[in-house]
Amino acid sequence: MHLDKAIAVTTAPHHDAKPAITTSDRDGVSVTTFVSNSFFSVHKWEVNGTASFEAEAPYTLVSIIAGSGRLEIGGTETAIQKGDHFLIPAPVKDWKISGELTAIVSNPPTK
């Protein structure tokens, strides 16, 4: 075991982290950012209506946790609902989501 390494990264007594959670609203979506660092970002999208998105990272991983709607990429629409998970790959530069839904979204660092 690497006891020395374990001790080096242990905080005693424990200190609660104070994350800098931010929320921003724009047409059709409220975006809450839970974590954003040099490794990844995690957001909550609350879509109510139609929201347009532009790629800010090499890919975007989306998990629908409530509601339903439609995903539009390049003129093609797909129904999405609670329980769906999908990846927006690098070649996709913009997309729209419409409906009433909540998604947890993660991606690597922005370009």
Automatic annotation (TrEMBL):
Signal peptide boundaries: none
Molecular function as annotated in GO: isomerase activity
Domain Mannose-6-phosphate isomerase cupin, chain residue ranges per copy: 31-107
UniProt-listed SUPFAM superfamilies: RmlC-like cupins (SSF51182)
Record Pfam families: MPI_cupin_dom
Protein name: Phosphohexomutase
Keywords: Isomerase
